[in-house]
Amino acid sequence: SELCLHLRHYRDDGVHHYFYTYTNTMNSSDTVILCTGCVILMATPLLFPTTLSSHATSLFLILHLCLYVCLSPADIISTVEFNHTGELLATGDKGGRVVIFQREPESKSEPFSQGEYNVYSTFQSHEPEFDYLKSLEIEEKINKIRWLPQQNAAQFLLSTNDKTIKLWKVSERDKRPEGYNLKDEEGRIKDISTVTSLQVPVLMPMDLMVEVSPRRVFANAHTYHVNSISVNSDYMTYMSADDLRINLWHLDITDRSFNIVDIKPVNMEDLTEVITAAEFHPHHCNLFVYSSSKGTLRLCDMREAALCDKHSKLFEEPEDPSARSFFSEIISSVSDVKFSHSGRYLLTRDYLTAKVWDLNMESKPLETYQVHDYLRSKLCSLYENDCIFDKFECAWNGSDSVIMTGAYNNFFRMFDRNTKRDVTLEASRESSKPRAVLKPRRVCAAGGKRRKDDISVDSLDFTKKILHTAWHPNENIIAIAATNNLYIFQDKLNSEMH
Ligand SMILES: *[C@@H]1O[C@H](CO)[C@@H](O)[C@H](O)[C@H]1NC(C)=O
Ligand SMILES: *[C@@H]1O[C@H](CO)[C@@H](O)[C@H](O)[C@H]1NC(C)=O
Questions:
Q1: Cα separation of 407 and 378, whole Å?
Q2: I need a surface site. Which of 98, 185, 238, 487 has the fewest CB within 10 A?
Q3: For residue range 105-114, what is the model confidence (pLDDT) as tens digits?
Q4: Is 476 near ligand 2, meaning CB less than 6 Å away?
Q5: 361 C-alpha to center of ligand 2: Å?
Q6: What is the value of pTM for the model shown?
Q7: CA-CA distance, 168 to 157, in Å (whole number)?
Q8: Which stretches does DSSP call E strand in 71-201?
Q9: Is the backbone of residue 86 left (phi > 0), alpha (psi -120 to 50) or beta?
């Protein structure tokens, strides 16, 4: 049995209406909830009948499906991000919406409900806009979401589209004041003559409501497309990077930012390289890294100069002249860079590989992992269908011992850095039933020997790509965005202990 959640959205007279339809294939009872406005609370838990597989399989990253949510086809997920303790998971989509999931606390009556993420709140973060001066449409697509560490009862997150970054406050309300003297329960002003005695208003419990409100809008600072935002470990500043510049912001100040990197050449014809991703060091607030389309990483220290155009360290792998081809530069472009939790290593993703770099070694990566080397012979057709420009992200697990990144055909890959084992798993409706163990998949290269259940390179579906993934900060729970579906997988070992 599976449970489908359909999110539908339409706009009427400037008011946003959201529909959710739940379909439980088990008893096919549909629930429709209609809310108006931008904030919705989902009270219905998504619970699955629990049928844990009894297969005694290797414990290495054997995961089972914990939640399966399918959204309507236009809602392609464009980013996924856990908060710093992993209890909240935010996704952004092409329609400019943000959906926040919350992990259910363990309950005695439902021993397997621990780890299940239910929809907590949904809101419209960005709207399509039009730049009249440049005659350009500005997409509402959410490029990145970053959580701020919690400081009071409310949660804050930053979301960005190509141009504008917004700070959102997410707070809960479960009480409302009642018993006003001058207005009735609907808020209408009472006739003064009917007020004969004074009463003290009281707070009465009500159904939990999640309110999301925009706190700050950081606009007009980017000429090019924003590809990254990163909150600094001082928790007061953050940076935003576009193709040619990186800006530093104070979280409270929206009308100015400081430009810390500018690689725009005086003459745009001399442009050979663009910034593809940027991130702050997790512990040292003066350090940040940015990656480029030429496959290089630059570590910058903000203590050295106000403008960090001169990097402190340049990480670059020397090119093998024998392997040079028309595609070399395209496939070496770094699509994502992530500091390890320890701050010692950098993880990068380019088209065919994932690499781990040691901050103390600039000359070459410490480890190189082949994500889908079988595509090397297919680069021509991947160039023709534009897939070669896909930007895959990568993620560390909580202890920096395993890395994860996506591939085609709804496959994603994991590499254990210690044992050097790797696995290909599939996030798809057909292959993963709730609470079932994911079967490792294998792609057989063209001309290679084909084993049972192998998939041939020629039958890979290049329209099904896993670009966005996130790993829970301290547990083996991962979130995988497969076009418009979000999958949350959890380590089997974990859940069996409950
Ligand atoms: C993550 O979200 C949970 C649930 O709201 C909250 O309790 C926790 O403090 C958040 N973690 C951080 C570090 O903000
Ligand atoms: C990282 O992965 C390894 C190998 O599966 C596992 O032993 C470890 O618990 C994971 N760390 C976290 C914090 O999830």
A1: 14
A2: 185
A3: 766 666 555 6
A4: yes
A5: 25
A6: 0.80
A7: 5
A8: 77-82, 88-93, 97-103, 117-124, 129-131, 136-138, 144-147, 155-160, 165-178
A9: left
